[in-house]
Amino acid sequence: MVVTGGSRGIGAAVALKAAAAGYAVLVNYAGNAAAAGSVVERIRQAGGTADRVRGDVGSEADVEAIFAAADAMGPLSALINNAGVFDQPSLLADMTAERLERTFRINILGSFLCARAAARRMAQSRGGKGGSIVNLTSAAAKLGAGGENIDYAASKGAIDTFTIGLARELAADGVRVTAVRPGIIDTDIHASGGRPDRVAQMTPNLPMRRPGTADEVAEAILWLVSDSASYSTGTILDVSGGRAILP
Fold first, then answer.
1. Where are the extended beta strands (E) located within the chain?
2. DSSP class per residue in 14-79
3. pTM, rounded to two decimals
4. CA spacing 20 to 30 A to 133: which of 18, 100, 107, 109?
5. Which residues are catalytic?
6. How far apart are the C-alpha atoms of 48 and 52, rounded to whole Å?
7. pLDDT in tens, 108-138
C-alpha cells in the first residue's frame, strides 16, 4: 500500500492500521522526514513492514520515484491518495495565482498522477492483479467554504468527480476506486492553514458536538480497501459527523 502524505494525521493513522492488517506500507512525505520515520519505526517495532519515501505528489518525476520505491516492496494492491494542502482563510478576491496553483497542483494533479501510476500497475488489462484506490475528499466539497478556503473546497469537489469517473473507468479492470469525505477532524492540518484553534472554535456548531479523529477516518479507509467492500466502487463515504449533510 502506498499512503501519500503518510507522515501525520489521517495518513499516519492509515499507515499504522494498514500495517497491522498485514499490508507492507510505503509512507510518502513531502518534507517531514522525522515524522515519516517515526511512523515507519512504529510499524517495524510492531512486526510490520514499512519504508518511507520523499516526494511531492504534484511533481510527475517525484510520483514516478514514489512508485518505483513501491515496486521494490512488491506488487501494488492499494493506494491511499491522502496528500493535500489547506491554506489560510481568504476571500477569492485576495487569493494569489500562486496559492491557487499550489492548491490545485497538489490536491488535484497530485491525486491524478498517483492514481495514474497505480492504475498502470494494478489494472488487469495491463498485467496487474487488481486493487483499490481510496481518494481523500472533504465535507468542504459540499459546503463550498466560501469566505474561508473556496480553493480547497473546489479542489475536493474535483476529487469527488474524479472518484466517480475513475471508478467507472477501472471497474472492469479489477480496480475499485472509492473516497472518504471527512468533516472537521482533529489533526494538525488546521495549524498548517494558520488556524490552530479552528477545531475548538467549530466544535460547538458540529452536529455531534465533537470533531472526528484520524483513527475514525482511517477505519473507514481500511474498510473500503478490504474484501468486505468488494462490491463498492464509485462510493464516497462521509465520515463527517453529519457536517456534510446538505439542508
1. 2-3, 24-29, 49-54, 78-81, 131-136, 175-182, 236-239
2. HHHHHHHTT-EEEEEESS-HHHHHHHHHHHHHTT-EEEEEE--TT-HHHHHHHHHHHHTTS---EE
3. 0.93
4. 100
5. 152
6. 13
7. 999 999 999 999 999 999 999 999 999 999 9
